[in-house]
Amino acid sequence: MVNQEDPRVLRTRQLIREAFSDLLQKKGFDAITIKDIALRATINRATFYAHFEDKYALLEEFTEHAFHEMIPEQVVNALEFTGEICDRLILLTYNYIVDFYRICRMDSKSIATLVNEKIKKLLQQTIESIILKGDTHHLSDSHHIKIISAMTSSAIYGAAHSWLMVGENDRTDLLIDIVHPYVMNGLGL
Asked: What residues does each domain of the chain span?
């Protein structure tokens, strides 16, 4: 088992993610092999497998790493789910989806499904964390918070994804105007 805090391990994982990103832009997920990733990252296949089980595990980490990199400090440190936090999450989710579809040649429904589910899960975890910190609803039952977070993240993600698919890319202000009241009213805020 590799030590995840070792600087060499961190550097190797970064090389693998960068190689993966380059290959996603050129070949598409389905065409990428472990050999391709190892060659591009200047490592051997055994080193790849010491860090990742397969390319699907790499895709999952790649998606999560990119998502966390995009979250602003204001959202991470938010103590309650405010209108401003809502707007930031709508915009962040939309921008993440746009960036990911631009980076990845989404020529495979399987990769699109995997990535979409991972983004929804990460968004839900972010919202749940914020609600738990504020707990302005005094929801002592964690199941209620999970359900509220799931519904909120689904609304934000669904709207952001639909916005990209209908081609309204330059009107994120309108996206926020549409989604914000829906989410905030749904939360009773």
From this structure: 7-52, 62-186
Question: 7-52: what fold?
Answer: Arc Repressor Mutant, subunit A (1.10.10)
Q: Quick one: 150 exposed, middle or buried, by C-beta within 10 A (0-12, 13-18, 19+)? A: middle
- The span from the CA of 68 to the CA of 100, in Å, is 13
pTM of structure: 0.80
Give which of 8, 31, 19 is closest to 62, Cα–Cα. 19
Among left, alpha and beta (phi > 0; psi -120 to 50; other), residue 167 is left
Q: Which residues contact 160 (CB under 8 A, 6 or more apart)?
A: 90, 93, 94, 97, 175, 179
Degrees to nearest 5, angle at CA 55 with 108 and 63: 75
Three-state DSSP class for residue 28: coil
CB within 8 A of 102, min separation 6: which ones? none
Statement: residue 137 has pLDDT above 60: no
Read off the DSSP letter of residue 71.
S
List the structure tokens of 121.
Answer: 């899960």
> Tens digits of per-residue pLDDT, 18-72?
999 899 888 878 889 999 999 999 999 999 999 999 999 999 999 888 888 888 8
How far, in Å, CA of 174 to CA of 151, rounded? 21
